[in-house]
Amino acid sequence: ETAALLFLFLFSLVYQPTLATDLGALQERITSTVKGSITSVQAIYVPADDLTDPAPATTFAHLDATTVLSRQIAELGIYPAVDPLDSNSRMLQAEIVGQEHYDVARGVQKMLQDYKGLQDIIAI
C-alpha cells in the first residue's frame, strides 16, 4: 500500500528493497511543518502476528507510539486486547511524563515481563 501511495510498482508477495526509504518518504509527507501539523493514526497489518516481519518492523521505526492488539489477550476476554509489553511510546520519558510516572510505568512493565517469563512454571 505504501508503494501505491507513492506511485511505485510493487511485485506481489515480495517486499520491495526500498521499503525503509519509501516509508521514510511517506512519513515525511505527513510531518509537522511551520504551516501546520497532522496527527495520523496508522493501522499496520502484521502477518502471522510476527512483529519481527520486515514490513511491520520497518514501519514501527517511523512511529512515535505503537499500540499492539494481542489475540492471546483477546482469548482471555480482556478488551481492548492491548499488549502492554509490545506496545510503546517515545513519550514515555522521565523528562516528559515526570519521574514518578516513568518509574511506575517501567515498574509495571517489569512485573508483567517477569510474570510472562514465569507463566510456564506457573502452569505446572
Automatic annotation (TrEMBL):
Xref: Pfam families: ATP-synt_ab
Any one GO molecular function term: proton-transporting ATP synthase activity, rotational mechanism
Highest taxon in the source lineage: Eukaryota
Main location as per UniProt: mitochondrion
InterPro entries reported in the protein's UniProt record: ATPase_a/bsu_AS, ATPase_alpha/beta_chains, ATPase_F1/V1/A1_a/bsu_nucl-bd, P-loop_NTPase
Gene3D superfamilies recorded: 3.40.50.12240
Annotated EC: 7.1.2.2
Record's GO cellular component terms: mitochondrial inner membrane; proton-transporting ATP synthase complex
GO biological process: proton motive force-driven mitochondrial ATP synthesis
Keywords (A to Z) from UniProt: ATP synthesis, ATP-binding, CF(1), Hydrogen ion transport, Ion transport, Membrane, Nucleotide-binding, Signal, Translocase, Transport
Record domain ATPase F1/V1/A1 complex alpha/beta subunit nucleotide-binding: where: 15-89
EC class of the enzyme, as a word: translocase
The keyword Transport belongs to this UniProt entry's keyword annotation: yes
Subcellular location: Mitochondrion inner membrane
Signal peptide as annotated in the record: 1-20
Family the UniProt entry places it in: Belongs to the ATPase alpha/beta chains family.
Subunit structure and binding partners: F-type ATPases have 2 components, CF(1) - the catalytic core - and CF(0) - the membrane proton channel. CF(1) has five subunits: alpha(3), beta(3), gamma(1), delta(1), epsilon(1). CF(0) has three main subunits: a, b and c.
Protein name: ATP synthase subunit beta, mitochondrial
Native organism: Prorocentrum micans
